[in-house]
């Protein structure tokens, strides 16, 4: 279960970096600012490294955060690509099409449609 929590934390951390704030990331993710903060804090504790420098006016990456962020962004990009790939599987017909028809009907109507199916 910790791996799943870490993946969620990585996704949230990446969104915080991209949005440049906890509040903006929370709005984009549709969760509370405190939930975003808790996920990032839990991830930092799990990694035993501070990822972000937080002040009331500014948010910046630490060296560890700058090293970690590109990996998180890649993981998110791959997850999104996987979702797109799977969703495309169901959007187009696939497989073998078998048609049984009299030969004359096949020559007149089906033969001309065959190239499109191939």
Characterization of this structure:
The structure is a single chain. The protein has helices at residues 2-19, 22-29, 33-47, 63-89, 103-110, 114-117, and strands at 52-54, 59-61. Strand 1 (52-54) and strand 2 (59-61) form a beta hairpin. It has a two-stranded antiparallel ribbon. It has 118 residues and is mainly α. The model has no long low-confidence stretch (mean pLDDT 89). Helix 1 packs across helix 4 (63-89).
- pLDDT under 50 segments (min length 5)? none
Instruction: From the alpha carbons, calculate the radius of gyration and give it in angstroms.
Output: 25 Å
- Distance N to C terminus: 46 Å
What string, H for helix and E for strand, traces the elements in order?
HHHEEHHH
Helix-strand makeup class:
mainly alpha
| Beta fraction | 5-15%
Query: Describe the biggest sheet?
Result: 2 strands, antiparallel
Strand count:
2
Q: Categorize the overall geometry.
A: rod-shaped
**Helix share, percent:** 55-70%
| Spatial arrangement of strands, main beta sheet | 1-2
Indicate the mean pLDDT. 89
What is the count of helical runs? Answer: 6
Secondary structure elements and their pairing?
Blueprint: H1 2-19, H2 22-29, H3 33-47, E1 52-54, E2 59-61, H4 63-89, H5 103-110, H6 114-117
Antiparallel strand pairs: 1-2
